[in-house]
Amino acid sequence: MTIADEISTRERRAELGQFFTADHVADFMASLLAPPPPTVRLLDAGAGVGALTQAFVSRCCENCGGVRAIDATLYEIDQEVLSALDTHLRECARRCSKAGISFHFTIHASDFIQDMSAQLGDGLFSAPPPVFDIALANPPYRKIHSGSAERRILRRIGVETSNLYTGFIAVIHRLLAPGGQLVGITPRSFCNGPYFRPFREDFLNQLALRRLHVFDSRQAAFRKDSVLQENIIFHAEKGVEQPREIIVSSSSGERNSEIHQQIFPFSEIVHPKDSERFIHIPSTARYAEAKTAIDSLPSRLDALGVTVSTGRVVDFRLKDALRKTPESGTVPLLYPCHFNGGTVHWPKLQARKPNAILDNDETRPWLVPSGIYLLTKRFTSKEERRRLVACLFDPDQVETEWVGFENHLNYFHAGGHGLERTLAIGLYAFLNSTVVDQYFRCFSGHTQVNATDLRTLAYPDRDTLQTMGREMKSLDLSQEKIDQLVTKHLHAHR
């Protein structure tokens, strides 16, 4: 294959949201299934070259003496892999024949969501949907916009989601028989965040989680692809109660890597009183300890008299009002690039981002009055040491009457105004601590920190935060010193 062909292939796969399953990952996924029925109706949606079906067939031929027939239905829209898929399925048929298992397969070279949604709809003349006992899924990963055809099709069957992979999973579980099993490998992003809440509600109401598996490396499971999201594998069962306990395991994702697993109460994975239905994944003992420490804290932000909001300034909507350098009639505009350790460094003239925004009738609704604000980055790179990065905006260092916070920042405030200084510094110490960072990693597999995530976090009470703020004499303390301060006060609450 030429370099041009490789680039063309990568671009086509990116357009499709396509990431092929490595053989060892597919085999692990198949190993999670409980013993299947004698006759298996198998679904492999987004089949690629058939790695998941091959892994299931191998397991049946080698280990599952009770399986007598497999009727496999596969969907794959990429015309360029259909020949390889057909070849691999014919090899499955030969293996099954030797093992005394009947194997029949059907390949649909069509859009899975469009086909199945039509059959799941309430149309008078729509054909009844097929029913499956087992589904194995590595669905395509691609955002779907509110006006897209996929979004409209999914809405007709009651599915509201912003990514193709969750759309696939929502359709797949609707096709499972009672007691049917689903094993999927997907991004971890559905586990938290406001955009996936309808999907989590639907998923957890219909499926019982049996197993969660995370990879220590972002790229090991899809080494040949530029996958920035953390991926998880889940095993779920249709139409039964959530278990009292669930297995959570982890591995590097490399071939033959060691698997570590623990058993957790299901109530620690999905909190019974959590209206957001976040799915926490405490994959290591260290993260589990962090979760225990944070969950024991007594306060929420509203009880502290504090709110967190996303920065109001969306720069491309106010492009004509932005200025590279401050000038008369402008006020500071802050981006993540203005973070300098624990404080704001402004202006930053060497940065590519603007440093100022005009203060006029058009822009004033998007500005906030000057005061002490705690800022956090909404997005961090995967290389950054901490998922949560907090910084203090101090009007003593940046003199201004108004200030703009760009949309890539979250800002903590008190009813639209600045915070009391010791409270703000206490929050700074808490949010920059290792224990909070580890807690975030329990349920956030992407590098985004939403305002909703920060609102649902548990916090120390106001007195404790103010005490921490008074004891923190400098914002440039080492990580070790910050952790010692926060740990001392968190332990005092236990």
Structure description:
This protein has 494 residues and is of the alpha/beta class. The chain folds into 2 domains: 3-283, Vaccinia Virus protein VP39 (Rossmann fold, 3-Layer(aba) Sandwich); 301-491, Alpha-Beta Complex (Adenine-n6-DNA-methyltransferase TaqI, Chain A, domain 2), CATH 3.90.220. The protein contains 15 helices and 20 strands. The chain has helices spanning 3-16, 23-31, 51-62, 82-99, 112-120, 149-156, 164-174, 197-206, 266-269, 285-295, 421-431, 434-443, 451-456, 462-471, 479-491; strands at 39-45, 69-75, 102-108, 132-137, 176-187, 207-215, 231-238, 245-251, 260-265, 307-310, 322-323, 330-334, 339-340, 343-344, 356-358, 368-369, 373-377, 390-393, 402-405, 409-413. A 9-stranded mixed β-sheet has the order 3-2-1-4-5-7-6-8-9, sandwiched between helices. Helix 4 (82-99) links the parallel strand 2 (69-75) and strand 3 (102-108). Helix 5 packs parallel to helix 6 (149-156), helix 7 (164-174) packs parallel to helix 8 and helix 10 (285-295) crosses helix 12 (434-443). Residues 1-14 and 221-228 have low confidence and may be disordered.
